[in-house]
Specification:
Radius of gyration: 23 Å
Number of strands: 20
Shape: globular
Number of helices: 15
CATH architecture of the largest domain: 3-Layer(bba) Sandwich
CATH superfamily of the largest domain: FAD/NAD(P)-binding domain
Low-confidence stretches: 488-499
Oligomer: single chain
CATH topology of the largest domain: FAD/NAD(P)-binding domain
Distance between the termini: 34 Å
Mean pLDDT: 93
């Protein structure tokens, strides 16, 4: 017998917990959160590698409705962000709604009942609404290196860090130079005997000053909320200015490239290494990173940067494409996550059994505002396709989506309907608009490939514009964009926001 509830939320990261909090603030207690792990936190629970931290200032990378005056540094580390999420879980008594160790294996729309049937290994749930708060950075992308099955040493991904494996004195190969690698490489470089960094494409890296927030500032933020809000606004609008360059005005990004190249010159003396780590594409085409220590780690005597790729892995070594063999006993993947194909791992079927993963594989990933999908009633995707950012805080986007989802629920219920669904023409128009804008942006014109793109080279990840524009688009739901099932009253625009 399936357990009945009003809302099933998948995941306990920022998206899932934020949705649950706002449901409670809206007077709704009829929901469950399904979490495959044994604690809350999502990305900030899973990624515990050395040096793991956020690259967005903490006062912006947090909920506006749950500010924290006590962030210790400008850019907080993993443990502190995870602690913030756990504190919110306790404050809102969310653990009684969470089913830990419960992985969602399927979700089926039941046509007759107008309900979702959600399957897990431990039982089924039926709900009026389904909220996917799984995000995109939760399934590690582990490359299939030739001969890896022969390797007798240790291998692990940065998101599955093996803390029991002491790296002291070891010969370590790091495959990939993404955001995680830029953070953990400086942490392990002094510990290991040899560090071999296999780089496919160098990232743009800017200096990052992670200052400690003084006690006086914390006291001010606690006692004068307006000061805290003002500080957050300064961070927000400063970050928003970067969107100008990324969306059709790349000349503005040249200033960032100048500072990034100067950063390389200051930290690396070797001309050959400088050339290896200097990107040949426009800043912003791939994710822009920040570090004051990464280049120093690469320039150390025990480090090498290999750009010729991995040709073969042997029992205790890696052979590059130039035929050079290097002895290693540990391989660490800094190769990021499955992003555009992340929903391939969730079996979600909508009206008439339509398979979401198959639909997106064959027709391309399409949503309306990154939140709703035609053919999948009463379902919400938080931090869904084309709502990721390269310049500001995704938590801002998540808040907008949560508000929109609650407004949609009210639209259904006040219209005395059973379900709602975005109209196909509305979804198509939105995606046409998004792709037109993306075509003018640095992600299409900057001369690189990135995890923002799907298998066909289409950007299904980034929001092409300012986040305040997204906030305006999602501030109020437009009933004309949706069809209602079982409605006895015409849909009308509703203006309610979470209390």
């Amino acid at each position: 017998m399936a357990e009945q509830t009003g809302v099933v939320i998948i995941g306990t990261g920022f998206s899932g917990l934020g949705m649950a909090i706002q449901l409670k603030r809206d007077g709704r207690e009829d929901f469950v959160i399904l979490e495959k792990a044994d604690d809350v936190g999502g990305t900030w629970r899973d990624n515990s590698y050395p040096g793991c931290a956020c690259d967005v200032p903490s006062h912006m990378y947090s909920f506006s409705f749950e500010p924290n005056a006590d962030w210790s540094r400008t850019f907080s580390g993993q443990a502190e962000i995870w602690g913030y999420l756990k504190a919110l879980t306790e404050k809102y008594d969310l653990r009684r709604h969470i089913r830990f160790g419960t992985e969602v294996t399927s979700a089926r729309w039941q046509e007759k009942e107008n309900r979702w049937l959600v399957g897990t290994p431990s039982g089924e749930f039926t709900s009026r609404y389904l909220v996917a708060g799984v995000g995109a950075l939760h399934i590690p992308n582990i490359p299939e290196l030739p001969g890896i099955e022969k390797f007798t040493g240790r291998t692990f991904h940065s998101a599955q860090w093996e803390h029991d494996h002491d790296l002291t004195g070891r010969k370590v190969a790091v495959v990939g130079t993404g955001a995680s690698a830029v953070q953990f490489v400086p942490e392990i470089s002094r510990q290991v005997a040899e560090l071999h960094v296999y780089q496919r494409t160098p990232p743009w890296i800017l200096p990052k000053k992670n200052a400690e927030i003084p006690p006086s500032a914390k006291r001010l933020f606690r006692s004068v909320p307006l000061a805290r809000k003002g500080f957050r606004n300064v961070i927000y609008w400063g970050a928003e200015s970067l969107a100008v360059g990324m969306n059709g005005h790349p000349v503005i990004l040249r200033a960032g490239e100048f500072f990034a190249k100067r950063h390389i010159r200051k930290q690396i003396a070797d001309p050959e290494l400088r050339e290896k780590v200097t990107p040949d594409y426009t800043l912003g085409c791939k994710r822009v990173l920040g570090s004051n220590r990464y280049y120093r780690a690469l320039a150390a005597d025990n480090a090498q940067v290999i750009t010729s790729g991995v040709a073969e892995v042997r029992a205790r070594s890696i052979v590059d494409s130039d035929g050079v063999e290097r002895e290693v006993d540990t391989i660490i993947y800094g190769t990021g996550f499955h992003v555009t194909d992340s929903f391939d791992y969730l079996d979600i079927r909508g009206r008439q059994g339509r398979d979401l993963a198959e639909l997106w594989r064959t027709e391309g990933i399409q949503t309306h505002l990154g939140i709703t999908v035609s053919g999948f009633p009463n379902a919400f995707f938080l931090l869904g396709p084309n709502t990721g950012l390269g310049h500001n805080s995704v938590v801002f986007m998540i808040e907008s989506q949560i508000r929109y989802a609650l407004d949609a629920m009210r639209m259904v219920e006040r219209g005395r309907a059973e379900a709602f669904e975005v109209r196909p023409r509305v979804q198509a128009a939105f995606n046409d608009e998004i792709q037109r804008k993306l075509a003018r942006g640095v992600w299409s014109t900057g001369g690189c490939t990135s995890w923002y793109l799907d298998a066909k080279g289409v950007n299904r990840t980034i929001w092409p514009g300012f986040t305040w524009q997204y906030w305006l688009r999602t501030r109020k739901i437009d009933p004309a964009e949706f069809s209602l099932t079982g409605s006895r009253e015409p849909a009308r625009r509703l203006t309610g926001v979470p209390r």
